Amino acid sequence: GSGNIYKFTTGGSRSTFATGPTYSFGLAFDNSGNLFVGDASIQRIVKFTGSVPSTFASSLNSPQGLTFDSSGNLFMASYGGSIYEFLNTSGTLSSTPTTFASGLGFLNSLAFDSSGDLFATRTDNAANSSSIYKFSNTGTLSSTPTTFASGLDGTLSLTLEPAAVPEPAAPILAGVGMLALLAVRKFRRQAA
Fold it and tell me: What is the pTM of this model?
C-alpha cells in the first residue's frame, strides 16, 4: 500500500526499486528484464523498463498474480475469477488481453512449472475453503483446471522451485519442480 517496490539483493539488503503502483499484487519479469506489476488499485499493469514506469495495459479487473510462460506470453490472475493472457507474437507482447479461463473465484497468484503446467491460487473467505488449480500442458495448455489441492487456508501466493539449483543448495532442495506454497498453514501441516 506504500506504492514502493523493493529490491532485495543476496544477503538481504533492501533498496527501493520504484514507486508508483499503490497495490502491487503481482510481479513478473520478461526475458528482457522488464518488470511487470499488477496494480489492483488503478486496474492496470505497469511495465518498468529499468526503473522507468509506463502503463502496459489498463481497464483490467483487479490484476493480481502475473507470470510469463516459456513463449513470452503474459498471464494475469484476476480477483474477479478469470485468467487473462497477453499474447507474444513475433517478439511483441500485446497489451490487449484475451480470456484464458473464467468463473474460478477469487484468484491471487500464478506460476508455471518446468513442464509448462500452470498453477493458480484461489482464496475464499471461509476457513479451509481455498484451493490451488492446475492447468495441464500436454502440448497445448488446457484452459480447464483440475484441483491440485483443496481445503487450504488463505492461499495467497505460490512459487515453483527452480529447475536447476546451484551447489550447495541442491542437496537440501530435493525435488525439482516441487510446488512451494507460501502463507498456506494447513498445507504445511498436511505435508508434515
Answer: 0.80
